[in-house]
Amino acid sequence: MIRRMFLKSLAAGSATAFSTPITLWGQSRQEFKALPTQREIRNFTETTYSADIIVAGGGLAGVCAAIAAARNGASVVLVQDRSRLGGNSSSEIRMHVLGANNHRFTRNWRETGLIEELKLTESANNLQRSFEMWDLILYDKVISEPNITLLLDTAVIDAELNARGSIDQAVAISPLLEERVVLKGQFFVDCTGDSALAARAGAEYMWGREGKKTFGESLAPDEPDHKTMGNSIMFFAKKHDREMPFIKPAWAKTYTEKDFQHRRIRSYEYGYWWIEWGGELDTIKDNRKIRHELLAIVMGVWDYIKNSSDHPDAANYALDWVGMIPGKRENRRLLGDHVMIQQEMENQDMYPDRVAYGGWPMDDHPPEGMDRTDQSPYRSIKMKTPYNIPFRSLYSRNIPNLLMAGRNISASHVAFSSTRVMATCAAIGQAAGTGAAFAVQNRCTPREIVENKGVLDRFQQLLLRDDQSLLNVRNTDENDLAKNARINASHETLAGPAKSVIDGWNRDIGDGTSHQWQAPWRNLDTWIELEWSAPQHIRTIQLTFDSGLNRTLYLTGSDGQYKAQTRGAQPEMISDYQLDCVHVDGKRSVIEHSGNFLRLVRHRVDWQNVKKIRIIIRSTHGDDLARIFEIRCYA
Question: Is-above-0.85 flag for pTM?
Fold first, then answer.
C-alpha cells in the first residue's frame, strides 16, 4: 500500500484532466449488504466491510448518494460520524433545506429526484412539525434499502492508496462501539463536507477565497486569502402565558441597538442565520473555539431581545432549544477535472456532462461575521435562470476512484457561494451516487464516463429515469416502451393533452407548455391509456405526478415561512388510482394503489403479452384535475 501524506493545493488556474485515464477494475461485485469480518485489537474490535461503494458522510448529499447508488444495484456502506443523518438539516442543527427555488422568489425551480422524495415524505408524515421526525424519515429511507449498510457514530480517520493511486481502503473509528472499521470499496464518495476522507487520501483541494486574477471573477476579492464563510448556531424559542425572565451568562456577548442595523430581528421563535462567526479561523481545527463564541453570541443576542427594552413583545418568550453543533458553511473544496466559476453560472453554460442544476443566489458572507456588525451579513446576487453542474466537478482530478458531493465539490469560492445550499447538495449527491454505481456496472472510472459521449448519454438518461432534472435534456431512453405506444384518454384539457406523458419532459420547463396530461376526475370515469400494436412484456411501470414544484417546501422553525407553505400531501398529487392491464388473450391484471403522496412511483410487475395499460384516476389530494407528467414502461 502507498500511504500518501496530507496534500493541500491552492488552485492557480483551471483544472485539467489527466491525459491517460486509469481504469479501475476493483473487486467482484456484491448485490446485498456488506458482510463484516472481525478481530480484536487492544480492546477495540476491528471490523472490515467490503462493498462496491463507500459513502463517507451522512448529510443530505451522502444520504442521496447512498440511496442512488443502492437503487442502481451497487452494494453501499454509508458512514456517518453522528448518531443521526441529515447534517445541517438534522435536529442537531436545524437549517432550512433550500436550493434553486430561492424561498418564494423563483418559481418551478424546486429540485426533483431523491430530495423531492424526501421532502414529500416529510411533508405528508410530519404534520407535528418535528425536526426529530425528519431525522427518523432519513433513517427509515436509508435502512429500508437492502443494498445499504449504515454505520452511525463512525468517523473516517485515514485512507490508504494502492500502486495505481486509487483509494484501496479507508479506516474509520467508532469510540461508542470501541470499534475500528476498515472500509474496502471500488469507489469512494466523500460527502463529509469537510472532505475528511479526501484530505487523508491526498486529494488536491482549495481553501479560502481566490483573487480576481485566479479565475477572472468580478465578485472575487482583489487578492486571494485563506478566509471562508463562518459557522452558525440556531435556536428555538417558545411563547408562554406569562413573562419569562432571562439572565445573561457572564461569558455572553453584549449587544446594543447599533449592532442590528444590518441584522433585523423580525420574529423570535426561530434563530437567525446571521449569527455567524469563525470565517477568519480554521472552521475544522478551531471548531471548539467557534462553538463557544457562537454560543456567547446567541446568549448575547437573546439578552438584547429580552432585556434591552427594544423588544417588549418578547416578554413571554423563552429559549426552548439551542444548538450545540455549529452549522458549517465552508472549508475544503476538492479539485476535479473542472472548476465551476462565476461566469459559467451567470451564462448558464451547457456543459455536455451536466448532471444536476443549482439556482440559489451567489450568496457570500463576510468572514468576520458578528465581529463586524457594521457590515451587511451577506451579498446576494440572484440568478435569472438555473445553472448546470458538470460531472467533472464531482470527481477528484488526482484520485481516480474518488467522487465528491455536497459543499466540497470542485468550484471557486464565488461559485460555491451558490452551490453550497442543501437541496443543491442533495441533487449533486444523487448524481455522484448514480455515477459511482454506473461506473461499477460499466467497469470504468468517472473520468471515462465523460470521455465517451455514448456512455455519457446513457448516464444522463439514467439520471432522468430516476427523476433527476437536467436542463435541456429530455427523455430519449430507447428502452422506454411507452414511447412506442398510442396514447388514449377519456378526458383531457386544452392545456394538458394526453400525448404530453411521452413528450420527453416530466416537469414545467418554462416554455409555455404544461408537459402534463390534465383531466377532470370528480364524478367521472377518468383514465389515460397506453396501447401497443405488438404484444409487450412489461416489468416496470413508472409514473411521474405533479407535486407543485412552483411552491417552496421544506421543514422550518419559522412560523411565517411554515404558514406560507402548503403542507401535508400536495393537492395536485394523484392519491388513489388503478392500473388495469389488458393482455392479448383478453385477460386482465389489476393493481389498486391508494394514499400516494410521491411524485415518482414505480410498480414492479411481470406482465406478458400486454396489449394495453390503463391508469384509472380515483382521487387527488384536493385538485380538481388529474395530472400526470410522464408514463414510462420497461421490459
Answer: yes
SS3 assignment for 45-88: EEEEEEEEEEEECCEHHHHHHHHHHHHCCCCEEEECCCCCCEHH
Choose among 101, 112, 98, 133: nearest CA to 547: 112
Please, is 455 exposed, middle or buried when counting C-beta atoms within 10 Å of its C-beta (0-12, 13-18, 19+)?
A: middle
| Domain assignment of residue 362, yes or no | yes
The DSSP 8-state label assigned to residue 324 in this structure reads S
Residue with grid cell 451579498, as numbered in its chain: 379
CB 152 within 8 A of CB 58: yes
pLDDT of residue 33: 61
Would 13 be classed as within a structural domain?
Answer: no
**Are 270 and 378 contained in the same domain?**
no
| 621 part of a folded domain | yes
Considering Cα of 508, then 513, then 517, then 522, what sign does the dihedral take?
A: positive
What percentage of the chain has pLDDT greater than the value 70?
93
- What angle, rounded to 10 degrees, do the helices at 60-71 and 114-125 form? 110
Q: Are 540 and 633 in contact (CB under 8 A)?
A: yes
pLDDT 10s digits, 482-516: 999 999 999 999 999 999 999 999 999 999 999 99
DSSP 213-231: HHH--TTS-SS-BS----E
Q: How do residues 199-210 score in pLDDT, each as one tens digit?
A: 999 999 999 999
Domain with 589, as residue range(s), is: 481-634
- Based on the domain organization, do 363 and 444 belong to the same domain? yes
Evaluate whether residue 444 is within a structural domain: yes
3-state class of 44 per DSSP? strand
pLDDT at 301: 98
Residue 597 has a pLDDT of 98
**Domain co-membership, 461 together with 489:** no
